Amino acid sequence: MPRKLVVLTQGFARKLNAKTASSLLRYRPKQVVAVLDDQEAGQTAQEVFGVGGDIPIVPSLDDVKGADTLLIGIATPGGKLPEAMRAIILDAIGRGMNVESGLHQFLCDDPEIQAAAVKAGVTLNDVRKNNERDVSQRNDINDTCLRIQTVGHDCSVGKMVVAIELSEALKKAGRDAKFVATGQTGIMIEGSGIPIDCVVADFINGACEKLVLQNQHHEIMVVEGQASLVQPRYSSVTLGLYHGCVPHGLVMCYEMGRGQVYGMDHLPIPPLKDIMRVYEQTADHLYPCKIIGVAMNTKNTRDDTAVEAERQRLKDELGLPVCDVIRHGPDELVEATLKLQKELRQQGRLK
Amino acid sequence: MPRKLVVLTQGFARKLNAKTASSLLRYRPKQVVAVLDDQEAGQTAQEVFGVGGDIPIVPSLDDVKGADTLLIGIATPGGKLPEAMRAIILDAIGRGMNVESGLHQFLCDDPEIQAAAVKAGVTLNDVRKNNERDVSQRNDINDTCLRIQTVGHDCSVGKMVVAIELSEALKKAGRDAKFVATGQTGIMIEGSGIPIDCVVADFINGACEKLVLQNQHHEIMVVEGQASLVQPRYSSVTLGLYHGCVPHGLVMCYEMGRGQVYGMDHLPIPPLKDIMRVYEQTADHLYPCKIIGVAMNTKNTRDDTAVEAERQRLKDELGLPVCDVIRHGPDELVEATLKLQKELRQQGRLK
Lengths: 351, 351
Prior knowledge:
alpha/beta, 2 domains
């Protein structure tokens, strides 16, 4: 039975870090009974998040019927629980609801919340909690599955969305494609995956290799990327994912108009072309990898003419397909993926 | 009071992963009462490890007097406790000794060992245990401290030894230099540092930045590197350390004759020159960084002529100082460090 969710954003609905909420609304709307946020109450999800249709935003759990799980719908830098959410979580537990969280600060390590959950007999599901302890072996990676990974120029630019849209479009084209989740929101949507950014450092690459081994019976895997090789805070996660999954091809994701690092406004992001070069140069020497296309994120741009101008400029500059998977659809990236598969088969790198 | 150590290697003395033991013997011999290893018993530390002089290797704790701490002297891949060591650890605890370990598998999480320690009233010191939860800010890095980092072509090539030898030599030359430990053995020697390879992924870069902030009142810091950007298992740790510490200069460490990846004999290591290029290209774009010298590790080579030939060949090829800090001393690297300091001051990047 799918869970019946109340998605909690409480004051964060219009901030970038409500991406967990908006992704659940986009990909699992049937599971969402309501969004809880007293600052946006009375509106619909569609009005605030641009997705989710008529799902109501409510001010209190009193206004919700038939939900069984409270899901924390935000991702804070450092993964800390905003104190404003504590009372709501305790309220939900008191009403017999389970609580699901993707924060680094685990609910089950919080004495007050843990005690309340035990007393109420409900489950705390900390999606990032893991005990990964395997190192890479590089013995059993097969040569039948095409491995595509999304990468980015920064955090929160849509790497998960692009990976989901691309894998869904490949399925519609009759291919056996699999979205491989590597972050808490992706795992909440897909129901499987490893929260790579919460794995102990020495085991990041190994955990990613395990994802490859678990999923390589598919024809094509599309692995959700994390952060960026040029992200000052999280670049280690990105490289571990890159070397652990040893993809054949990358889709470069970027947000139109973003010039400064997410959460670090004093730091400029390097030019896209430079970043793309760093990615290709940093591939494992035994697994050469190239960028097959660019995914624009244009959600903050209303000006269609500007979007199309930038799209054309990038196509000319890079000689690659460029699209926003939401605005334009992912067809160009599907083509690029199948073209790479064909090339690698001709070269004998893929069977 | 410095601790009085029995260093446990039990069957691992002649393997590469006894590097914790050999480093303690090299840098803290006065603290080591004995080495415990029944397969090497009767010999001296010097005979087995090439360092440690007359420190005896004993078959049992019965043969040791006056020690207060058992120190696990090995680093296993994955950081697991060899089962053969369990009985010895319990024996030591029963004798009232503390136990110090740098393994990933924490002693304090082992019910049997933890219970025995509580009963005996002794301390378990898991050096890798940490709760790092800070992300990088890039706000407070100063422009007075020169940051040097050792990097490598693989694991276990001497990055810690080179960092210690270089910082000690800089001190002898009258400079205010500081060795900054980032691994369990370095921390055991220096008494401070952060075990970077055991930090949760999202906080690796931040933990490394913290080391910079804690130590940048010195004129020069020499940061112990970890693994390698081309190490299939641990490259994520390397990049986090690199972007977290944003060094001005790197010392490239490699082991003469090593062609295959440590612990992964089926994988070749790329050519040194290619690896050096990857390091320079992967530097943060706001903190350009260059390799200032090469540290050879020639401990497995008895042939002096071959060593000197390779040294000269590399000097010619790379146009950089090249030395083995143990065999030749670190003077060339001291010169290269001071030359970089002068250059950066002329460019205005350092005050």
